[in-house]
Amino acid sequence: MRIFLEQYKMKKRTQKIWTIIAAVLLSILLLWWLLAATIIDEDENIENPVIIQQID
Asked: How many helices (H) and strands (E) in the chain?
């Protein structure tokens, strides 16, 4: 029974480590996606400036 409990604890610890790694990777990917979207949006605004005409 003791061996089973030790294996269970080790399995839970390993699962927790993988969950933390996955959360960190997901955070990095989301930040990268946000940064990439911002840079692409800025590039589009620079290449195609909006021209506003005044009507007199």
From this structure: 1, 0
Work out the average pLDDT over 36-45.
75
pLDDT tops 70 at residue 18:
yes
Distance from C-alpha of 24 to C-alpha of 9, rounded to nearest angstrom: 23
Coil/strand/helix, residue 7? helix
Of the candidate ranges 5-9, 14-18, 50-54, the one whose mean pLDDT is the lowest: 50-54
Sign of CA dihedral 2, 4, 10, 13: negative
Quote the CA–CA distance of 17 and 10 in Å, as a whole number: 11
> What's at 31, amino acid-wise?
L
Q: How far apart are CA 37 and CA 30, in angstroms?
A: 10
